[in-house]
Write a structure and sequence with these properties.
Layout lengths: L1 H36 L3 H14 L5 H12 L3 H11 L7 H13 L3 H14 L4 H13 L3 H14 L5 H11 L4 H14 L4 H17 E3 L6 E3 L8 H5 L8 H11 L8 H15 L3 H4 L3 H12 L2 H9 L4 H10 L1 H11 L17
Antiparallel strand pairs: 1-2
Helix pairs in contact: 1-2, 2-3, 3-4, 4-5, 5-6, 5-7, 6-7, 7-8, 8-9, 9-10, 9-11, 10-11, 13-14, 14-17
Amino acid sequence: MKWIFIAFLAMSVWSLQAQNNKELAWNKAKEAIELMDAGQIEESVALLEECKKLDPTEHTYPYEIAYAHVIQKEYKSAVKILQKVKKYEGINSQVYQMLGNCYSYLGNPKKAIKEYEAGMKKFPNAGNLHLEKGNIFLMQEDYNKAVMNYKNGIAAEPMYPSNYYRLALLYLSSDNKLNGLIYGELFLNIERTTARTQEISELLYQTYESSISFGEKEGSVTLDFCEITLFADDLKKGNFDLPLCAPFGKNFVLATIGQSEVSLQSVSQMRSKFIEFFFEGDEKEYPNVLFDYHQKMIEAGVFEAYNHYVLQIGAPNEFEQWLKNNEEQYDAFVEWYTQKENVLEITDKNQFLD
């Protein structure tokens, strides 16, 4: 019994020491991250090396050391570390993301893609890996493959924002601006109040501004959001399925009736009217998560304020004037918009993939 007790006591002491080492390592790591953020890279790495010795099973410490090498553009050194980090338990998709990025920085896109794809097998729901693979093709100006990978990223992880951001930028600079408007606004609802959201907010408003042209004749309007291509063979076979562009154009033209200019207020009114007309039947054949969200806000009485919020960077002076006159309405929207049950939730069942 004496020997059993001594053995148990030794195991308890070892377990307590291991726990203390883990806690000490984690506290040191926090300090190391602060040093790294402050630009004190060497001091940060020295602390992280101590963390590795205290807790050699934790992948975070060598990963952060690799990141320090990336900051210093020492990509080969980072690669050597990350290849080892891949073998740790408990890693996440960011290990493969950083490793692939390092190969990309080193001018080896094939190896980069190989790492992203290896990560996808291990983490099938990692939207960030599809994003990075898409970015490789974007840099190569292979836009079709870039778009395909960004869409794959949305399919894998519908609430990861960066794939929406990339698609918005690509589509808003193409002939199919409608897709850009949808991807861009979905992005704004997933990632809020960042520099990127301000960029997209401005682009969305500018797209409405450049895509709606009122003629001199009353009721004359031209829309340039998208194009419809019909193939004779499909029509002969009885395939009359039209893309979203068709019902969008029909209903948005109706929404312009009574308008004569493009402004923040008029676009808000047009968007409200569009939803009204769209939900007279087209929503059944063309279900759309963004339009459903618009309808929800109309029913809650917050859609006008939302429209001003989401497009404000494109017309800042008009927004400020509207806000002065509608503070109570805007506050009610903010209260509604920030409640958990009102956050736009995109899943694999309702995601938008044109």
